[in-house]
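ping. complex inputs:
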Amino acid sequence: EFEEARKWVANHLVFDKNVDVNLFESTIRILGGLLSTYHLSGDSLFLEKAKDIGNRLMPAFKTPSKIPYSDVNIGRGTAHPPRWTSDSTVAEVTSIQLEFRELSRLTGDEKFQKAVDEVMKHVHTLSGKNDGLVPMFINTNSGQFTHLGVYTLGARADSYYEYLLKQWIQGGKKENELLEDYMRAIEGVKKHLLQRSQPKKLTFVGELAHGHFSAKMDHLVCFLPGTLALGAHNGLTADHMKLAEALIETCYQMYAQVETGLSPEIVHFNLHAQKGHKDVEIKPADRHNLLRPETVESLFYMYRFTGDKKYQDWGWEILQNFNKYTRVPTGGYTSINNVQNPSNPEPRDKMESFFLGETLKYMFLLFSDDIDLINLDKYVFNTEAHPLPIWVPA
Ligand code: DMJ
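pong. complex structure:
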């Protein structure tokens, strides 16, 4: 299968196309995938392709502030923000660093790393943070955060936090500003966003909007227990591991408390006990499941670092439910519209590429006891589950 795919990459993967692509999605999926495949196979074809797409994405950084635009035309070499704004998403501009830094290391051309390091340095100095928590938008003209006052670990901010830690690990734990920002942010999470639900007293990460706490948690936030565990494994404070243990239980309950045993996209937690109510409430607009990886990803880290079999059992349960409710008899899997209806989960006829790239890969790793099957002291996973080497392995 690899040879077949290699042939396709060699003969048909051409980036000289007059097409707009999203900088972040293309970096984490295409550039990250090619760099990772280069490392795992040693085949220079993949590095050549990585260089090609890397160069084609660079025009995104030509902005007044050097905070990149969200969209690039990879054939024409032009870039622009979304039609309705000159803002970029904070998670997007701060979650392309692992890939571009690695591309510089491999090619010896420092322009890639320079562009993405500048973004991190700039964000490090910005005001508008709340105890290390960042807003969701940043303006490509002024370089300032916009839409101030809303803080989440979910959509539009999530992987900012993940990449602070992972860049620090990738670079051999020397870049202190990254670690400082990460540690401060986790303190910010504890201070502003952590609450416990009723009746099970599950620890969850909510959101803050202009001083008001909301008990809303995106499934996307479930990357956090894995990231916290990875930090603890790399010598950060043991209470990050305690928090990881509490949060992964919550993420598991976001599956277990639902009729199909599959998590919706967003849940709201009950802060007060009510007869007949579980911890997790689901709004009609949020009851879809896109086959997302975050919980399974965190289960993998938790199992690697603790050896506690319950994490494998929870992952197995989730896999059974994916098989039961999302598997398509003629091949593949599909997103569903309604996790609350086991007799008709409403298949969408759409399988996101992160299901293969991340969800199934993390399942595969979770069910293995071989710590050298991607050793976490030698590799760091990018946010699309593509392993990249740690520059100075432990
Ligand atoms: C993936 O593209 C990445 O994991 C990203 O960080 C978040 N969204 C999807 C998976 O849910």
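The chain has a mean pLDDT of 98.
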